[in-house]
Amino acid sequence: MQSTALRSIGLFAASLTLGLVLAEVLVRLLVPDATRASLIERLKNERVSWARPDAEFHHVGDGIHRLAFPAPKAKQANRILVIGDSFAMGERVGKEKRFGTLLQQHLGDGFQVDVLAVTGYSPVIYRNILHKAFELATYRAVVISLDQTDPVDDLIYEEDVVAPDPTVVFDVDRMADRDKALNDAYSSLLERLSRPVSLRLSALYNLFNPPSIADYFDQENRHYTYVARSLERPQLIGQFILDPRSELTIRMEALLTQHLDHIVSECRGRKVPVFMFANPWEFETAPYPRITLGLPGPFPKENRLESVLLDRYGSMPGVHVIRMTDYMRAQPNPSQLYVDNPGHEFHWNAKGHAVAEAILRRELLATLQMKP
Q1: Taking the mean position of all CA atoms in its chain, how far away is CA 131?
Q2: Which of 23, 176, 270, 371 has a CA 20 to 30 Å removed from the CA of 357?
Q3: Could you read off the pLDDT of 135-174 as tens digits, one per residue?
């Protein structure tokens, strides 16, 4: 009897071990981002994304992450300004394949397209970009590329604002202190993840217990809310879409439109037409999106950011809201417009930028009655 029980226990243990090994192999194959190496790489990249603080533009970087303003008093009869975040900057496709560069190529030498965009930017920063650009050059049109992260980012950056009008000033000392605290927290987290013996060696464990910098950041720290909201961006995007009556959604929408109102007012004061569009993500254009942010089906979902723009600015003289979502949904396979590797990537690929450029170019030429 005892030997039978021991055999049963041994068989159960062996079956459990085999099941765990198979589950681990499947997770590594199907969810490679859950492996320890991928987690460490993501956290290192995430750490780099907290760029240098700046009083005028919140955070700044180098290379493609840098704002390339025109020379003072730049002359060009048909100068177009493109303002935005990582989509307009060309994240994952590079400067040469982003829609602003393609627009320049198709319009030709008779036009000048200035792309002033950096990852993580939002309308509270767009205001300062526009104001400085207008001081340096004369523009025929202004294009604002709004992203699904913009309402959330305006909420996050609100606590860094020390002077909101007429242009925004950000608290550099506060941002620098936060960066130091974050670097310390990241160092601690990466050290723990890199230990030779750790549960983090298991992709299965990481899948169900993903590490977060918030777990290693003191909740009593004055920067905790900023950090927590930054890490909760996907959930806050979903809240903006699904729960328009929540307190945070109402605050996000109020901040977004407050800053956009400033932009529209400055453009209309100079009689420069504004073209706006809300960058559609895959879950707003495709029936079977790869990234859903945990939103319930069916898909595609409404592009609520686009709806907010249409409701507030759609009939306003001098403002043109482009229904980018409809155009991208009309493509044969909208999912092919998006980067598909790594698994957490959500930006447009080169094909997506080409579609966006064609739509934008058509709207610009038709509205301004220009010819390339």
Answers
A1: 23
A2: 270
A3: 999 999 999 999 999 999 999 999 999 998 888 999 999 9
Is residue 1 situated within a structural domain? no
Element (DSSP H or E) covering residue 28: helix 2-30
Encoded amino acid at 332, one letter: P
Cα maximum dimension of the chain = 95
- CATH number of the domain bearing residue 113: 3.40.50.1110
CA distance 12 to 18: 10
DSSP symbol at 299: S
Q: Are 116 and 129 in contact (CB under 8 A)?
A: yes
Q: What residue numbers bound the domain in which 288 lies?
A: 33-368
Note the pLDDT tens digit of each residue in 34-61.
888 888 887 777 666 657 899 999 999 8
- Judge whether 322 lies within some domain: yes
Cis amide leading into 300 (omega within 30) = yes
Q: Which two tokens stand for residue 326?
A: 């409809």
Residue indicated by tokens 């977060």: 212
What distance in Å separates the CA atoms of residue 136 and residue 191, rounded to the nearest whole number?
47
- How high is the mean pLDDT of the chain? 91
